[in-house]
Amino acid sequence: MRWTKFLITTLRDDPKEAEIASHKLMLRGGLLRKIAGGLYSFTPLGLRALKKVEKIVREEMDAAGALEILLPALQPIELWETSGRAGQMGKSMFRLTDRGDHTMVLGPTHEEVVTDYMLGEVSSYRQLPCTVYQIQTKFRDEIRPRFGLMRAKEFIMKDAYSFDVSLDAADKSYQAMYDAYVRIFKRCGLRAQPVEADTGTIGGNHSHEFMVLAPSGEDGILYCPACHYAANQERAERQAPACDHSTASAEPRAKVATPGAHTVDEAAAAIGCPPDQIVKSLVYLADGKPVMALVRGNADLNECKFRRLLGCTFLEMADPESTAKAAGPFGSIGPIGLDIPVYADLGLKEARDMAVGANEEGYHIVHANLMDDADIRIAEWCDIATVVAGDRCPHCGAPLTIERGIEVGHVFKLGTKYTEKFHATYLDEGGRNQTMVMGCYGIGVTRTLQAVAEQNFDEHGIRWPVSVAPFQVVVDLLDPSDAACAGLADKIEADLTAAGVDTLVDDRVERPGVKFKDADLIGFPFRVVVGAKALSKGGVELKNRATGEMQIVAPDALVSTLTQLIHQSTPRA
Ligand code: ATP
Ligand code: MG
Question: Which of 329, 421, 441, 524 is disulfide-compatible with 474, CB 3.0–4.6 A?
Fold first, then answer.
């Protein structure tokens, strides 16, 4: 392929809207173009890289025995009403009406459609297990689309769904997908870490996310260096922190004036105690019913964990009016004498001598003991605070560390959540109707591509692994008007192509510096310079983008040298 025929436009400066390296570099390298917020076009160059990720995903799905299908992106709302998710998806699901006034949705995911499809296909246990997958566009009206392909409104996902006769059988299907994911991300040249993930309202340790570690990642990952426990901050657990009673006063409870103090810090200042001696009291509406959560003043309530504990669908912070009705005025609320269920984080369990809101504007109660005070009724002691670095590992007690990660994939045991609602059954060996057991497995294909760039770049540009690079080799023809050099570039292109190496010849009439900069920016793994200078030394100059190594190679030896280098540097599972 010739540069001059491939519609490549690189940009000198960082586009203003791009915040993270991979987004900047993919725009500057001319792989991606923005059309509107959260909507991007792939250029011929970008599409080549995307297709390579898709190919790896497809090969590994096929190898794991999954069957490729293609479901419609446009879906009737009735399927979402059957599953009960029509309301739950809220504004993140795009809805539209067709000319017959039927409400349709643009699929944010396909559990409903695939369950409906499979119930029509499967009738007997003999057809199970069965895993199907597709690589398809998804639509989500994200609150904050950002970072280019990382969080887009329209993106490409590989979504797979397994159907099994039993939970045990479903475990095997889950493991097969998990193993395929490990291979996929390795082959893409990614360092990805599986972590325990939040399962929403389904519960259990039945979900893993695959995280690409990168400082720009939107997710926090708690990691235990001692026992290798790893979990998304959304769900990470911890052992109860040790409690120091040495400075706790045994004085009786007292009401103190804290005028104007509404935040933890303001209350602490007014009372004259450290923030961790304040109990942070929060009223939430769980499916509309008020509940209170208590965490230490220096901790954050983790809404994901709290929702999971309560087993509710909707959880939202109560508005001032509901808060006042359930407890007291915003900023001065506390658990004393309440009728609503109060859930206290285990970080408070041993705590003595605490300050709580008095449920009266401008007052707090000091020297409160949550465990002993009869008028503080705790419905449950639970782990509902956000785990932070230094908290104790739930398995071994060692201090946890935190890193940032990009979620590129998610594997999930669904059980019969959807198959029950859709009556997706099969006949077992005894001729009895049984409900199929399901799993679902997503990979953000477009997000994965950008994650590869986010983990592989330097100050000059992207450093694509050879498995994902849009072209594995760029041949910089320094002077296209030099017949000898042009002829050699032609031959190199033909020979490399015949050897199965994707090759782009930079045949532009440009200064060498411009060509070198663009090659580094776009990030081709190998660069071959064909110019009079190197030719006079008996060869062409070969540069390895990842290592920076340069060598002069005789034209006759180039194909074998390159195919060997490419082979050596191909990331393997
Ligand atoms: P996130 O927590 O990042 O919003 P999610 O939990 O909503 O992700 P899933 O519904 O599990 O994601 O979707 C499967 C995969 O699709 C994710 O692992 C991610 O790689 C990708 N993905 C999800 N939302 C987006 C998006 N808005 N843009 C690009 N990729 C996405
Ligand atoms: Mg999401």
Answer: 524
Burial class of residue 469 (count of CB atoms within 10 Å of its CB; 0-12, 13-18, 19+): buried
Distance 12 CA to ligand 1 centre (A): 31
Q: Which residue has the tokens 């946890």?
A: 400
Give the HSE-up count for residue 270: Cα atoms under 13 Å, Cβ half-sphere: 23
Report which bound ligand comes closest to the CA of 150: 1
Residue 230 bridge partners (DSSP)? 223
Phi then psi for 531, rounded to 5 degrees?
-150, 165
Convert the pLDDT of each residue in 159-216 to its tens digit: 999 999 999 999 999 999 999 999 999 999 999 999 988 766 554 458 999 999 999 9
What pTM did the predictor assign?
0.91
Write out residues with Cβ below 6 Å of ligand 1.
109, 140, 142, 151-152, 155, 157, 407-410, 442, 444, 446-447
Which atom number of ligand 1 is nearest to the Cα of residue 412? 11
Query: Coil, helix or strand for 5?
Result: helix
> Between the CA of residue 106 and those of 95, 97, 140, 154, 155, what are the distances in Å?
6, 11, 8, 10, 12
Burial grade of 365 (CB within 10 A; 0-12, 13-18, 19 or more) = buried
Q: How far is 194 from 207, CA to CA, in rounded Å?
A: 10
CA of 190, nearest ligand number: 1
Strands 503-506, 473-477: pairing is parallel
Q: How many other CB atoms sit within 10 Å of the CB of residue 407?
A: 22
Neighbour-count burial of 272, counting CB atoms closer than 10 A to its CB (0-12 exposed, 13-18 middle, 19+ buried)? exposed
Phi then psi for 378, rounded to 5 degrees? -95, 120
Q: Which of 146, 447, 449 to mutate to test the pocket of ligand 1 (most atoms within 8 A of CB)?
A: 447
Cα angle 463, 488, 481; round to 5: 95
Q: With contact defined as beta carbons under 8 Å apart, do 263 and 331 qualify?
A: yes
Reduce the DSSP state of residue 109 to 3 states and report it. Answer: coil
Q: What is the CA(444)–ligand 1 centre distance, in A?
A: 6
Ligand 1: distance of its center to the CA of 414 in Å?
A: 17
SS3 453: helix
Ligand 1 mean position to 252 CA, how many Å?
Answer: 52
Please report which helix (H) or strand (E) contains residue 21, including its range: helix 21-28
Give residues with Cβ within 8 angstroms of 138, minimum separation 6: 73, 107, 108, 109, 154, 155, 156, 157, 159
Q: List the Cα angle 243/248/250 in 5-degree steps.
A: 130
Residue with the two structure tokens 């605490």:
354
Ligand 1: distance of its center to the CA of 301 in Å? 23
Q: Ligand 1 centroid vs 86 CA: distance in angstroms? A: 18
Q: Which of 407, 408, 449 to mutate to test the pocket of ligand 1 (most atoms within 8 A of CB)?
A: 407
Dist CA 122 CA 165 (whole Å): 11
Angle, CA 96 vertex, CA 92 and CA 97 arms, to 5°: 155
